[in-house]
Design goal:
The protein is of the alpha/beta class and 365 residues long. It has twelve helices and eight strands.
Length: 365
């Protein structure tokens, strides 16, 4: 009985904190205390803009055309396509579009990025995905933050374009960006995004090839005494997956790597107290949401006859599950993505996190 009560209130408090109270606290604190970034619009370092590609023949020419149109001095910009052993015409088309192509043995995205960084001597390395589109001034807005010598990493704002499907990722992503902006104003973000980010080549860190840059690079920069910041004016556009179900499969794959970093990446080691709390609140507890929900559900059932509050909370949980089963958009999204944290943890313990993957070319009908 006592154990069930403790588990009930602890899981409920953890879920409320990571999903609602922490974002609110960050937003309020960021209003009261903001660490500025010494941006300089005149700062124009040489940049190697790296696109990692695996069988992207349908997108690579359009991607390079977009990047050639950036408002950045062409003599300071090198476009690099690093191919993870593509078996289609990606490499041929990229060369024809004027990019420098680096061919790699199949080893995954991070290994291909490492090879590209080793092959360039630009002051700044910037990264993007093959399916993203950058605004013309995105690179300028991005690198101006690196004029501040305390800043090692900067990610831009990814805006998900409207899809013709039912995926509710855009709702979550807008909520996530508000929290990310607050973290940046307080010090450093706890994660970036693969569509648009940059760092000085001298600050680049080669990590375990199974890790992803989005989660690994920000906390590594902070461990080195530097900052990882968010630049909302550096805009990239990307089309989301069409349905909640396809997003669920994508999240399972992503969370496998997140669990690897959380469990083996030593991300909490040597962190300043405020950033340590941010990592625990925004990353560890968020990835543990599925487990916390299972604990809350189980303890609610065990305590059903011991108070109204337990019956009410059980009813709310069952109502959420019923709405998800009925296909209510945001409820289905939340339940699927939360369940993805559990499935990904099971996959990680069962077979680990693979460095490579084959993208599913799913499109809206």
């Amino acid at each position: 009985m006592v154990a069930a009560v403790v588990l009930f209130w602890a899981s409920l408090a953890a879920l409320a904190w990571t999903h609602a109270l922490y974002p609110l606290a960050i937003a309020l604190l960021a209003r009261a205390r903001t660490r500025t970034v010494a941006r300089d619009d005149a700062y124009l370092p040489s940049v190697a803009l790296i696109v990692t590609a695996y069988n992207e023949e349908d997108a690579i020419e359009r991607r390079l055309e977009n990047l050639r149109g950036l408002d950045y001095p062409p003599e300071l910009l090198e476009l690099v396509v690093t191919s993870d052993a593509s078996t289609d015409r990606t490499e041929e088309l990229a060369e024809g579009a004027g990019a420098r192509v680096i061919r790699n043995a199949r080893g995954g995205k991070v290994a291909a990025q490492d090879a590209a960084v080793r092959a360039t001597d630009a002051e700044v390395v910037a990264f993007s995905d093959a399916n993203a589109t950058w605004a013309p001034d995105a690179l300028r807005k991005l690198v101006r933050n690196l004029a501040d010598r305390g800043v090692a990493y900067v990610c831009g704002r990814l805006r998900l374009e409207s899809a013709d499907g039912a995926n509710k990722e855009g709702v979550y992503w807008r909520y996530e960006l508000v929290t990310r902006a607050g973290e940046s104003r307080l010090g450093s973000v706890t994660a970036g995004n693969g569509a648009i980010y940059a760092l000085r080549r001298s600050d680049y860190a080669e990590v375990d090839p199974r890790f992803g840059h989005d989660l690994a690079l920000p906390y590594l920069m902070v461990q080195r005494g530097r900052r990882a910041v968010y630049e909302p004016e550096a805009l990239a556009l990307e089309r989301p997956t069409p349905t909640n179900e396809t997003e669920y499969r994508r999240k399972v794959r992503m969370f496998e790597h997140s669990w690897l970093i959380v469990l083996r990446g030593r991300m909490l080691r040597g962190q300043p107290p405020g950033y340590l709390l941010a990592l625990l609140s925004h990353r560890h507890l968020r990835y543990a949401s599925g487990l916390l929900h299972l604990i809350l559900l189980g303890s609610s059932l065990a305590l059903l006859a011991h108070g109204t509050v337990y019956a009410v909370l059980l009813g709310l949980q069952l109502g959420l599950l019923a709405a998800a089963l009925a296909g209510v958009g945001i409820a289905r999204y939340y339940v699927l993505i939360t369940w993805a944290t559990v499935v990904s943890l099971w996959n990680y313990f069962r077979r680990g996190a693979p460095a490579t993957w084959t993208p599913q070319r799913e499109r809206v009908a």
